[in-house]
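Worked example 4.2. Below are the chains of a multi-component assembly; read each line carefully before continuing.
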Amino acid sequence: MKKTSSRLADGRELIYFDSTDVSHQGEDDRLLSRPQLTSELRYDPLLETWVIYASHRQDRTFLPDATHCPLCPSRPGHLTEVPDDRYEVVVFENRFPALMTGLADQVMQRDALSHGHSGDLLTERGAAGRCEVVCFTADHDAFFADLSPARVDLVIDVLVDRTVELARIPGVEQVFCFENSGSEIGVTQSHPHGQIYAYPFITPRTERMLYAANSYYRRTRRNLFEDVLAAERSDGSRIVLATEQWTCFVPHAARWPFEVHCYPNRRVPDLAGLDLDQRAELPEVLLDLYGRYSRLFDRPAPYIAGWHQAPIREGRRHFALHLELFTLQRAEHKLKYLAGSESGMDSFANDVLPEVAAQRLRGVPREGVA
Amino acid sequence: MKKTSSRLADGRELIYFDSTDVSHQGEDDRLLSRPQLTSELRYDPLLETWVIYASHRQDRTFLPDATHCPLCPSRPGHLTEVPDDRYEVVVFENRFPALMTGLADQVMQRDALSHGHSGDLLTERGAAGRCEVVCFTADHDAFFADLSPARVDLVIDVLVDRTVELARIPGVEQVFCFENSGSEIGVTQSHPHGQIYAYPFITPRTERMLYAANSYYRRTRRNLFEDVLAAERSDGSRIVLATEQWTCFVPHAARWPFEVHCYPNRRVPDLAGLDLDQRAELPEVLLDLYGRYSRLFDRPAPYIAGWHQAPIREGRRHFALHLELFTLQRAEHKLKYLAGSESGMDSFANDVLPEVAAQRLRGVPREGVA
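Applying the procedure described above to all two chains together yields the following structure tokens:
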């Protein structure tokens, strides 16, 4: 893998990742001023979580067509976020980031001392961190499921690189690599791409999983993720695909209509921890899995896919790297909405039994076999 | 308030609530068989929460027009869920409930003993509980914001009644009264109505708030909700409206673009705990608040409104009744979507600063003053 770093016109970093020894030409010739960025974090004392505020994101571009796509390679008359006229995989800092470097990470308590209480109820700090965009291919109309195994392998190399590099930014506590696909979930760019959030805190989801894993360890001296995987493999009714190194299953208590968790059979804390055997099988496993979501309904299902990794400093001992991939689509032309019970109480009701979802996903024909 | 209970053709309970001494005629003459109901709960060991499964809900009716609305009063040739040809407020058991009475609440562990681990990773039990529909008015085209103060007062009476009655069902731990409004959030019936879920567990959201309130009490000997309210009132920049008995504000760390929390100034655990002074002001407070969401954009904003109440047995000492009302709409014709960070990591990024949201909501003209 060859890595070529450069700067965009407004100072953001852009990095080409190539499988061969190519050189990248092309300065960013756009007149581009950095928008006024004002991200901050606020602490919710009732839920004990940080919320990110990024009001500059209100004005971000929404679903441009292919001729105006900022993620395509530049060509004469159409300068994009990628100055060169070709690329394999390219990463750049998000122009409208939720989190950003160079912010003071100083905590400010707006209600300190004045009300007789503990003075930490209105807490704010800079939203330090970094948000990156990962373009999987220069082909505007491709889906992740259409990539070649070699390209998927390169994408994973890139995610490993970013996980390691972003962990070095002072204040970053967790790196999350994810992909949103489909306008039904609010995707603003249809060009095939993922995103990386380098958070300055441990996310609520990860915090809860670590809490559960730690309690389980104290109770049993065993690893929770390993035992869940063993129970799913032993039960078998929710397995979607299994190889020597990987297992993909619909969890017994899945929250989304078609939700698959994908674990390496030998536990590792994060993408950088995968060994050569695990890495060798991963592209085919992912292409098989994503392909099933492409062909589950009459057109590719909208989905969210996220790599859950151990935080950088805490919880590395008990966490297990895994991918969670789910669609909001519950049937042909029907979406699952998060209404009162889900959005108000975080209590999920799911219309599709996990065994039924697994059976449906197992039964999706391989491409060309329909 | 007069309460008249009867049964629908398939055995479900229906209750009329009237402000005057009327009697209700009309048997349910429909040929209605109860659909096969198969709700169950499964425990997610990684998030330590219950997930509800109700596969019969896949086939529920979706946005019928006014001539086929099942929540309108019955009329010759169009028999609905409400047999009488008029009503003020009516409550009935949901035909497609996520939770239901009469289920064995027995816990079953599908992975017990066989894998050497603790045997509680694949846990299931019946989804005991009850789901009710509350029709606010017979007028198909009204919004909650259009109701008269007297009608809102009757609706609150009904919610108090249901909170008390549903708490008596064995196994029910928490009663949640909420309203989804707008097709953008998946509302399947546009007739103005709310819903009530009587859960057989404490919801994840409430559990986290109780955890925070308990820790805060141990640390400070003070009540978290009271101190948050005091801090918001003292700061003032996020207050939307305040009366002698009630305060409505955008929380300092709001997760949604336009989110308001509404608390009685004197803390009570649930709706049944409100005193006469608090009750007297509440209809006007709610109508004022909901009216602002009706007129914030060029058409009524889609919203979710939920009354957060103390659970029935646990946590009553530290909890504070409050309404949370929020819209997913972040600007004219723009929705907030829950994508990777929110749905994958429960980490919210919000484009609208709470002070800006509060200012916008404060500035919404009263009806007819535009």
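Take a moment to check your reading of the output against the notes. The first helix of chain A runs from residue 149 to 166. Chain A has a mean pLDDT of 91.
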